Amino acid sequence: MESTGRPTPADTEHFDAIVVGARVAGASTAMLLARRGLRVLVVDRSSEGSDTLSTHALLRPGVVQLHRWGLLDEVVATGAPPVRRTVFHYGDEVVPVNIKLRSGVDAFYAPRRTALDPILVRAARRAGADVRFGVSVTHLQRDRDRRVTGVEVRDADGAAVRFEAPITVGADGIRSLVARHVDAPVHWRGTGGSGVVYAYFAGVEVDGYEWLYRPGATGALIPTNGGQVNVSAVVPATRFAREVRTDVEAGFWKLLFEADPSVAGRVADAERTTRFRTFPGVPGFQRQPWGPGWALVGDAGSFMDPIGAHGISTALRDAELLARAVADVHSGAASEAEALRSYHEARDYLSRHLFDAIGHVASHSWALDGLRERLLRMSAEMTRESEALEALDTPAAVPVAA
After folding, report:
1. Average pLDDT of 187-201?
2. Which of 124, 246, 322, 364 could disulfide-link 129, Cβ–Cβ 3.0 to 4.6 Å?
């Protein structure tokens, strides 16, 4: 028999669900499944508590989820400052907006990922999930009908291990191995993407979240733990490749001063406390998030351009939609196809208009007057999203009609 070159797993462990990825989407999905009594395994190739590329702003839907799950107090305890005001800089015009009490939330937060991700992992473990770091998935297992039945991994010691479960969830980011191995179709795709360069600064005077908009270049100031502020400059991916990739620091300052010279002057007087991080830009997409024995959540299934600052909120939302669907299958309340199709429809219902609005902002092909209309539409969509999440606490289902 010809060798495949793959190691032979020493043994097989069985679970009710396997989640690949222990960041926001994966840890949240695992926590919610474990709270419903499922035996859940989570594997992640990174080291526990490590940082990841993120601007980490939580908007209302994300804060609503953490509040509903009983985790918001832990986020507050990290020292992430409450954000009670958002300031929009439209060219030289400054428009402040106070955060109103709605859906039980009167402040936003932007915890560092080194603070937020461990909170979710600890919550998953408290609920009973088995979370293992330093574990890399090498293959998906399938039966004769091509149904996914589990994963093969290399553990932290390099040993090959096989895990089996009725459902394998890919929560492994935009370059998801799970999505690639199941050849998940892309149903929607954006036409462009934003390139982002950011760093953390201490000593920046900031008035809540500050969003900078000027045709051709945008930016953001996001206050976070330890008195630091995440400062980003954002441009279309094509411009990022020309002007930032070869000299990141010079590109950052050039773009930030272009987006708002006054704000850039504030930042220039502060102390940079980290290296610059970059994201070259990827068009947004919506993949089909389920199939026989598998599902996708977070950026693996739905990636919105970072200019919308909605990635974490989307991940927290979809974790609950998916966990409810998987739990219904496990309990026999619905067939796999019925439950996962409902998850897909609910995700798309809550995403489509927001996806389009964020994509337009990411195009940078707008005038400031038209931009305000798009941002108001985004705000209205987030309100609708928050109301739908609150409705999960009642017997009424999330509507899926167009």
Report:
1. 93
2. 124
